[in-house]
Amino acid sequence: MLYTIYVGIDISKYKHDCFICKDTGEVIVENLSFINNKKGFQKFLDLLKPYDNSNVRIGLEATGHYGLNLKLFLEKNNYSFMEFNPLLVKEFYKSLSLRKTKTDKVDAVVITQKLMSVPYKPNSKLFYHKYSIKSLTRLRENLVKQRSKYKVQLTNILDIIFPEFKPFFNNSFGATSLYILNKYKTPNKIANMRDFETLNKLSRGNFTYAKFVKLKDLAKNTIGESNDIFEIELSSILDLYKNIDDHINELDKQISTIIKDLNPPTISIPGIGVISCTSIISEFGDISKFSNPSKMLSFAGLEPGIIESGTMSSKGKMVKRGSGYLRYSIMNVALTVIKFNPTFYDYYYKKISEGKCHRIALSHVCKKLIRVIYILETKNIQFDPSLLK
């Protein structure tokens, strides 16, 4: 008689704990800890070898990068696995017991019980590819935030050295302004610069001779104070800014290449660019694991909390659980989508006319957008505005 074997694994940084039983409830391995290395993985694999791969169901919590090597090891050895949101496992354990006992061994048992209580939906074989893309987009997002901090630091030092500089360039740091800062540093040197042709070419003609003369005049009559210390500080921040900007540009090229090869249907939605599309599909991962758009909303933390008690029923604020990176990407891209698609635009202003504030109306656009993404990705079709309602 063939048995289904259930394996619950509690992931941690240096070791993993597992519990193995049959579908009859018979315990095969009550508790086993194996080290997060090749020897430990082989020890775990030896426990599974007596059983047919197709009859082994493995469950573990989604714990970021700590379990990535184990997941790849399982995939290479033709074992499937199912990941659970740690919060769901925690709530499941609360439903089983009022005790507050929490150990790695107990967690492994609870994960096994959770695995046995739900339909088995193993991760896609493309999980590693999607995880790699997600790592790239998250790295890029973190670098962009760091670059923004350097912009603030640049502004602060310029407010001392040359306060008229940034307003002259409409309070932004473009290629022309950064070139001038990197080459000349101080107002005294900017007042004596002579390479107009280079600056004009760099700005594609936008930096006219009139602007060139005006900037030199501003530098000559600035109220700013410059000394060696401030110049060193400015040089350091400019070097850091350029370094991080180069890394972001390189990541953009890699992400663009990847998304071109994948060509996901989501990219066909007007207003969704390469970077935001990559972030969205990589954060969602295997969209086929979502049985409906509502579960995608829940995953993104965009669903409202629902409170019911007796005769009282109300909807609260967004739960804001799930991926913060995904929620940030969806909210940002919704701003551009309403500019490029009349249906989304009309839907947004319909919510505004109902008395909703901008943020709430935008969240409704996000929900509609996720429903569209679900249809496109699960049916593998391109965006068609005529089908929107």
Q: If you had to describe this structure to a student in words, what would you say it looks like?
A:
With 389 residues, the chain is of the alpha/beta class. The protein has 16 helices and 7 strands. The chain has helices at residues 38-48, 68-76, 86-96, 104-117, 127-161, 165-168, 175-184, 187-191, 196-202, 209-220, 228-262, 274-284, 293-300, 324-340, 342-353, 358-379, and strands at residues 5-10, 15-22, 27-35, 56-61, 82-84, 304-309, 312-318. The protein starts with a strand and ends in a 10-residue tail after the last helix.
Note the topology.
Layout: E1 5-10, E2 15-22, E3 27-35, H1 38-48, E4 56-61, H2 68-76, E5 82-84, H3 86-96, H4 104-117, H5 127-161, H6 165-168, H7 175-184, H8 187-191, H9 196-202, H10 209-220, H11 228-262, H12 274-284, H13 293-300, E6 304-309, E7 312-318, H14 324-340, H15 342-353, H16 358-379
Parallel strand pairs: 1-4, 4-5
Antiparallel strand pairs: 1-2, 2-3, 6-7
